[in-house]
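B., you asked whether I could sanity-check this one before it goes into the benchmark set. Here's the sequence:
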Amino acid sequence: MSRLTDNDASRRRFLLGMLAMGAFSSLPGCASGPKVNRAMPMPDMMPADKSVFQYMGQFTVNGQAADLQSLVTPGAVIETGDKSEVIFVVNKDAFLMRSNSRMVIAEQNVGGHYLLQRGKLMSVFAARQTEIRTPSAVIAIRGTGVYLESDPDLTYVCTCYGETDIATTDNPAINEFIASKHHDAPRYVLADQNRQNRIQPAPFINHDDQELLLIETLVGRSTPYVVPKGVKRSRSSYL
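And here's what the prediction gave me:
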């Protein structure tokens, strides 16, 4: 399970130092790196006719190259490329999708149904019953923030705050209820049906409160705890 531990740290940190200032700019010494796309200053809430707040690198919507003008609606398939990241809103849910990730949004998404087929995704959800699936896990969500990493062998689930019901995809009887105030009970959900303990404690990895506050702000909400401002960020990447 080392693939989802702190070995991922070198791929992670890029966005938040610049997001705190409301816009992106090219990093010093990174002229040959991925293109960073400037967007609007941080709004109180995303306009109703917009979906994408910010992106870096390349991403697609329904297989087509996308940008700040692209709409993400129920039924869409969102995919990010290598060294890429996108922040977007679907109704009252908001997402930060990291590189090499793919998510399918159900066409009838009134209740909120999402499939993270692969990759890494931070999500905050409206106060309604929502379900997000990976190949190995089903997470029933009740108006909360979660961070997921979907790997062929297992899923990482951090209930950042709120309540979730976590179950294995192939056997709903293998489940655990999580009530979290502040990243209290991260879990691995194992795909291997021969393992006895398929939902296991996990470390806190690869996400932070500034990211959660950002995407909550995009849908007119805030985190249930105070997030310190002015935190200086590393220039290494969460990607």
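One thing to flag: DSSP finds two helices and 15 strands in the chain. Otherwise nothing jumped out at me.
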